[in-house]
Amino acid sequence: MLQENKVKLSIIIPVYNEENYISKLFEQLKNFFNDKNIEIIFVNDGSFDNSKNLIKSFKDHNDYIFQYYFIDIKKNSGKGKAIQLGLNKSKGKYVLFLDADLELDTKDAFDMYQMIEDRKEIKCIFGSRYLTGKLKKNNYFFNNLVGKINSLIFNIFFLQSLTDVHCGLKIIHRDVLKKIKITLNDFGIELDLASQIVRNNFFIYEYGVSYYFRTKLQGKKITWLDGIKSLYYLFKIRFIDNDRYTNLSLIYSVIYMSYVGSYFGMGLGNTLFIMFFGIIGSIIGLNFFILSSSIIFLFIYIGSLFGQGNGKTLSVTVFFCFGIFIARYIKKYLFKSKVSKWF
Length: 343
Hints:
The protein is an alpha/beta fold. The protein folds into two domains: 9-239, Alpha-Beta Complex (Spore Coat Polysaccharide Biosynthesis Protein SpsA, Chain A), CATH 3.90.550.10; 244-342. It is 49% helix and 13% strand. It has helices at 22-32, 51-58, 79-89, 106-118, 141-158, 174-177, 189-199, 224-239, 244-261, 268-287, 290-304, 310-333, and strands at 9-15, 38-45, 67-73, 94-97, 124-128, 136-137, 170-173, 205-208, 211-212.
C-alpha cells in the first residue's frame, strides 16, 4: 500500500557562483524551516567557484532535521532549467522558490509559507519588492524601471494587477504546478510561471518583501540585456504561446477593431486610429474568444448608430464599455460549460 506523501514544503534554490552567500542562507534555512516534513533542494547550476563544494558539505551537518537534496548541473544552463530539475525532484504539497543571493529575506519566505498554510483558498503567493512596509535598498534606477515597466506590460496583456512579476520569491501549491509546464530556461522563468498560472485561472496574491540589491561587484547577474530579452518573452508568451482558439480570436478581434478605427479621423489621424484600435483588438482577442468578442463588436456597432462627430465617439465608447461588461458576465457564467472555449 502506498504511503501518503508527508512532505509539506519543498524549497528549491538554484545556485550559480554564490559562495559568499549560501553558507549564511543555509543557517537561515535551519532557523526558519527546520522541520522533518520540509525538503530543501539546492541545484548547482554549473558554478565554477566554491559553491558546489559548500552545497555538498551541507549534507554532512548534523544540526538540522529537514530533508536535504543536492542536484548538480555540470554546465550552466540557466535559472529556469535549474528550477525545472528541482521541481522534478520535489514532492511537497507547496513549492517555495528562493534565490541564493540573499537579496530577499528568508524570514519573508517563512511568513509566506505560514500564510498559504493557514488560508487554504490561497494557491499562489508572489513576493513583491515594490509593495510598502518593508526595508528596501536599491540604487539601480534602470533595473528598477525595467521591472516596473515589464510588470505593467504583463498586467495589460493578462488583465492582472501585479506589482512585481520578476520577483524570485514565490510559493505555489502543487495543484497549480501540475497544470503548468515551464518552457524557458533562463530568468524568463518568472514571466513563464506567472503567465501559465493566470492562463489556468488561478489567482496570484502578493506579499511585500524586503529587498537588498547587490551590485555587479557583489555578484549581481541580471543585466540590461535580460531586460530587453524579457520584452521578447512577454511578446512570446502572450502572442505566440496560445492555443488555436486564442489565436483565432486574436486575428478576429484585431480585424474588426481596426475596421472600427477606420471610421475615426482623417489622413494620418485615421491611420493612428486604426493602429490604436488594432492594439485594443489584440487585448480583447487575448481575453475574449469568438462569441464573447462578437458581443463586444455588436455593442460597438449599436453605439455607432447614435450621435454625430464627438457625440458618436462618446456613444461608441460607452457602448464598448457596456459590451465588455456583458461579455465578461457571460464568459464567467459559461465558464464550465461545453461552449466555454468559444467565450
